[in-house]
Amino acid sequence: MLLRARSIALLRDWDESKHPREPAGSPEGGQFAGGGGGGEGGGAGDESGSMRLVGTGQNRERHDNWIEDLKKQIDNLPKEEIGGEKDGQLNGMKTALELHRDAPAKLKGAGERSLHTVQDGNGKLLAAVYTQYNSEANYSSVESMGGLEHAALVKALEHMVTHEEKDNHAERIEMTVFDDDKTRLDALKEIGFRSGAASGNGVQVMIRGKETTQAEIDRAARQSAEHSGAILGAGQATAKLLGYDSKLVRVSKEDYTFTLTGTVRHAAGLAHLASGVITLYPERIYSADAAVGVAAHEVAHQKYQTVLNAVQAQRTDMNRTDMKEQEAGRPPITNPDGTLKPEHRDLFPLVARFEKHEQNLDARIKGDGVTAYSKDYWKEAADKGHDMTSVRSASHETIAEMARLEAEREESKASPAWKSYYKDVMKTYDELKRAEKAKALYDRARYC
């Protein structure tokens, strides 16, 4: 009885925070954390600085305090250290914390978004690693990490590996690292990462586990004739519903790449503006549902180009007529600023319709797109001084993205100037097609 009473008294006085342990599931699962040497740790005062405690970002207040502290450390870096090693590690930790903070609670709860931190006994953050697990392909990727000391970064990575391999059963863990990032490369190599086949061009894709997971093999198998057929069917059906010739939609197994904002990207679809053909790339389109948005995007490219060609053709006619009128000694049909005079607007209705949009070009440039993808084109246009070619390309992508959002029934955050322009583009295309159909019927009747 005396022993039991003493035990109860000890439990009553026990303060868990003074006896930190490694979290269950870590390499030191459930053990009390100490410094580098055996038997050390759990001490007070100066010895607290030698302790290394592993965490998973569950303490939101501490988490937020770390972010603010890292911001201050980054802001207070000496000028000569900005962009250097310490700056990179501090930013890596801050980004890891921010990504975890902003990740959906559901994914964090399921362990598909995870944070792994190492701190000393005084609460100072020494390393942070943030990962996300892709359940469809059964692999995990390290999205951001940083550490102020090698041992702490290795410990955080070991804790991460345990979680991803034992809890998520990930068959591969990967991280893309620059060739000259010795700190991260050394830490990754120490825990069994190696340079993968996708490495090159100044970066190394460091992997642990399989180069290709079984889920990825299975996914590749889906990119078969059956999958291509489903993508083609969805693309052609979408084109038909949008009033575009479905016979012009095709599929291809090739990998079409392009560069945007300095990054090599893989196209899911391509509009061949000269021929009107649309190519869909099934290996970049996961499902028939996704093909609807891709097809709508590419159809919009074709429609937009058709309208641009028609407006330009009518403008050429207008300029020719204007010149003839003046050569004949009659008043010009245009104003000094090049716009049509009111009495001649009916002669060139497309030019008249789009004059206001030409005048609103600056407003559309300011609106710079409606999605991250189209905004990237406007960034490139800005870098090129908004020359005619880059503005035309960015406008194409913005119109196409508006069409994709419409097909996918997603809300468009386009500016009023863009919405008005888009509406007139689509209206004009429909009018052109109706006129083309009517002419075909007339010609058929005429020659029958």
Brief digest:
The chain is of the alpha+beta class and 448 residues long.
Task: Provide structural commentary.
This protein is α+β, with helices and mostly antiparallel strands and 448 residues long. It folds into 2 domains: 19-37 and 48-218, Aminopeptidase (3-Layer(aba) Sandwich), CATH 3.40.630; 226-447, no CATH class. The protein is built from 14 helices and 12 strands. The strands form 3 sheets. A 7-stranded mixed sheet has the order 1-2-3-4-5-7-6. Strands 8-12-11 form a 3-stranded mixed sheet, covered by helices on one side. Helix 2 (60-75) runs antiparallel to helix 3 (85-102) and helix 5 (150-167) packs across helix 6 (182-190). The longest helix is centred in the C-terminal third of the chain and has 40 residues, at 288-327. The model is unreliable at 1-45 (pLDDT under 50).
